[in-house]
């Protein structure tokens, strides 16, 4: 595993040490790694949302009414739920 030294203000250092000492993390490095994993996941989610928004904007306007779109989404959700039930059952 690679090593990285990070300078923190005293209050932040104390916070990290406190979180590690509370028992949720084995040490300060575990806490920092967890924060980085959470940030990576947040960024992936943000990127997915932005990609979906850009795709939606690029697709133009729909000829369907809001009610038709709603009904199509409900039907798709119902189909996915039924598939999941069959796999689980």
Would you mind describing this structure in some detail?
The protein has 89 residues and is mainly alpha-helical. The chain has one domain (10-88). Helix content is 74%, strand content 0%. It has helices at residues 10-21, 28-58, 66-88. α1 (10-21) packs across α2. The radius of gyration is 23 Å and the shape is elongated. The mean pLDDT is 94.
**Which residue ranges are poorly predicted, with pLDDT under 50 across at least 5 consecutive positions?**
none
Number of strands: 0
What is the overall number of helices?
A: 3
Question: What oligomeric arrangement do these chains adopt?
Answer: single chain
Q: What share of residues is helical?
A: over 70%
Mean of all residue-level pLDDT scores: 94
Strand content: under 5%
**Distance between the first and last residues' Cα:** 43 Å
Work out the count of structural domains. 1
């Amino acid at each position: 595993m690679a090593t990285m030294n990070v300078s923190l203000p005293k209050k932040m250092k104390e916070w990290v040490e406190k979180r590690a000492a509370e028992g949720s993390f084995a040490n300060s490095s575990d806490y920092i790694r967890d924060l980085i994993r959470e940030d990576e996941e947040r960024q992936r989610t943000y990127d997915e949302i932005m990609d979906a928004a850009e795709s939606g904007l690029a697709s133009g306007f729909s000829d369907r009414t809001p009610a038709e779109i709603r009904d199509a989404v409900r039907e798709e959700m119902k189909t996915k739920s039924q598939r999941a039930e069959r796999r689980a059952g």
